[in-house]
Here is the input.
Amino acid sequence: MKPPLKIAIAGLGTVGAGTVRLLRQNAELLERRAGRKLALVAVAARDRARDRGLDLSGVRWEADAAALARADADVVVELVGGSEGVARELVSAALQNGKHVVTANKALVAHHGAALARLAEEKGVALAFEAAVAGGIPILKALREGLAANNVKRIYGILNGTCNFLLTTMRETGRDFSDVLAEAQRMGYAEADPSFDIDGVDAAHKLALLAAVAFGTEVDFAGVHVEGIRHVSALDIAFADDLGYRIKLLGLARPTELGLEQRVHACMVPRAAPIATVEGVYNAVVVEGDFVGRVMLEGRGAGAEPTASAVVADLLDIAQGRNATSFSVAASHLRRGEAAPMDRHRGAYYVRLMVLDRPGVIADVAAALRDESVSMEQMIQRGRAPGEGEAVPVVLTTHDTDEAAMRRALARIARLGTVVEPPRMIRVENL
Ligand SMILES: NC(=O)c1ccc[n+]([C@@H]2O[C@H](COP(=O)([O-])OP(=O)(O)OC[C@H]3O[C@@H](n4cnc5c(N)ncnc54)[C@H](OP(=O)(O)O)[C@@H]3O)[C@@H](O)[C@H]2O)c1
Here is the structure.
């Protein structure tokens, strides 16, 4: 039997504690699969006195997490979080010292992935981050291994469980965004500061990693067009339903003639599309490969257990000597692509206006669209006859059009005296 794989873990919060529990609970199974023990030898967190419900007897406690980079361990597992500070320091130093690194830290890898992967390769060790993308869903492994023979045409997914939970609850209850968010915060489904989730940043971190692995390009977080879901209203969700769509926050990436397109924003997707049926806190990733066609993986994208499942899968690979490249190609072979400008994006749009019901309003809106060569697919006006001075919603959808033209048309429509609120626009993805 090979000697145990010695593991040091920094961070004993949600994911760290879940990882320790998994290593303990499934120890025998892991040992059989790895052909050696997975031995936890050292840990670090901020507060030693905190009761974490973990048996850490015989495990060395380091007051300074960065010291784990020098611990007598084969692998350092970084579960602290943050793109800078102790997480970055520890990961760099551990790699530098020839230790494998496993992390769930999407922010760190989204910002520094290429440099860290190069360092790992130089030192002949693994930098593994399966848990950083879609929690328990083994999508990076699927891309690197089972789907490796394909040219990926497009990859997209529901990458943030909090947003999917909020949008699902809004649709099921008809309640508005702020109301549902406040409840989710009370129930612990959304952070006290939810901006990373609801403004799309967390999904953008994950999309940048997915795109890098799928297309063999350097992680380009700055190249992701990011919008969140604060502007999605109960009214839009109801209209989407009428039109046969669901509203989802998606991350989408694909190579185009203009460069790599990476975008995170609310989308209307046909109700019958497989991804439209992914509800609540669930995540899903769809890969479209040239030979395999469409593959969708669905599962829990966060939480102690699913995330620990991904962390320990990476540890098993290392224990078995399978040091996959961090991305799908060697770090030195990652291409540095251009980012496709969002202005040049082409697609269909849903637009909702709140207008005063006066003669000529619709003609003015239609003229603004016509002047920008935006071709309207349909226009709907619903609801009771408005009282004097009361606004009514008018909804329209377009055929495929250029984003820049759409934005110019919307700016002109917003200036009309009869349009009383900024127009709401949601991109339609016919997936
Ligand atoms: N939560 C999820 O479902 C999930 C899913 C996928 C990926 N991730 C990623 O996993 C990582 C950890 O997330 P989490 O939810 O487990 O976070 P968390 O619950 O906040 O835990 C963070 C841990 O890091 C420790 N820590 C913080 N600053 C430290 C420092 N300066 N020195 C030493 N230890 C420090 C904390 O110590 P104390 O406990 O003593 O305060 C805590 O144990 C993040 O990168 C996150 O993005 C999380």
Summary: The chain has 13 helices and 17 strands. The radius of gyration is 24 Å. The longest helix spans residues 106-123.
